[in-house]
Amino acid sequence: MDNNILIMVVEDDEILANEIKAFLRKWGYKAESVMNFSNITADYLRLHPHLILLDINLPYYDGFYWCTKIREMSDIPIIYISSRSDDSDKIRAIAQGGDDYVEKPFNLHVLKAKIEAIIRRTYQYKVKDKIYLDPDTCFDTQTAILYYQNQEVDLTKSEKKILSKMFSCKGEIVSREELMMELWNTEEYVSDGTLTTMISRLRSKLESCCHNEIIKTKKGYGYYIE
Length: 226
What we know:
Blueprint: E1 6-10, H1 14-26, E2 30-33, H2 40-47, E3 51-54, H3 63-71, E4 78-82, H4 87-95, E5 100-103, H5 108-123, E6 130-134, E7 137-140, E8 145-148, E9 151-152, H6 157-168, H7 176-184, H8 192-210, E10 216-218, E11 222-224
Parallel strand pairs: 1-2, 1-3, 3-4, 4-5
Antiparallel strand pairs: 6-7, 7-8, 8-9, 10-11
């Protein structure tokens, strides 16, 4: 298994959370659990996981609430892990954006099989170096080159940095702070105003060349590529 896959475990039973993490790590995954159940979206934005295991019965707000909040920011796969056995809970879990539902107590190997199936379906486009937005538009992750109808789109070094970061988190929100840190690794200091100008120019360029609004804004959070 790709050891870059990070799974966020949202489970307030510390013993079970640690058991799940240890099991996943044994199979080559990265696994982290939530510590602050009053602000799970903060941990989501900090960790940028590839998949979430989400309990329903949680302190402060239940799993349905947090699934709805995360769905406002991302289409990341979410598997509910819950002791609730009512069909109505399972239906609600899927209807509110969950991808699967595992009833406690569960066999960890069954959970692993479900995780692997969802990861294959969700991230199979990342198996190759090129990520396709549509049949005409793709980004080569190795060279940081964007192609439209097999023609290279002319990008500056900073624009390639921005797109590389955003394509690496495709489907998820990238904060302005993360983009600024990415650009600081180049030769120049990037201020908040400079980043705004860069994003605006890059958007105009992409819309002109690719006839598509590739970079989208989530107000109050950052930017994302669907």
